[in-house]
Design brief:
By secondary structure, this protein is α+β, with helices and mostly antiparallel strands. 31% of the residues lie in helices and 21% in strands. A 3-stranded antiparallel sheet has the order 1-2-3.
C-alpha cells in the first residue's frame, strides 16, 4: 500500500503526494479530487511498461 499525504493549501485547494514516488503529486478541490492514488498507479504502470525501476533508490 502506498502512503498518500495531503494538506490544505492557503487558497483552499488540497495537494496530495506519494512520498515513495518523488514527483507524484496532484491538486484538487478535495483530497478525493486530487486523485494521487490514480496518478501513482499510472506512474507505476508506465515504469513497468518501460522496464524502469518502480521506486527510485534512496
Amino acid at each position: 500500500m502506498l502512503r498518500i499525504e495531503s494538506e490544505q493549501e492557503a487558497d483552499g485547494r488540497c495537494i496530495a503526494e506519494v512520498p515513495a514516488l518523488p514527483g507524484v503529486l496532484a491538486y484538487g478541490a478535495t483530497k478525493a479530487d486530487a486523485k494521487a492514488q490514480a496518478l501513482a498507479l499510472r506512474v507505476i504502470a508506465d515504469r513497468l511498461e518501460n522496464g524502469e525501476p518502480l521506486f527510485p533508490s534512496p
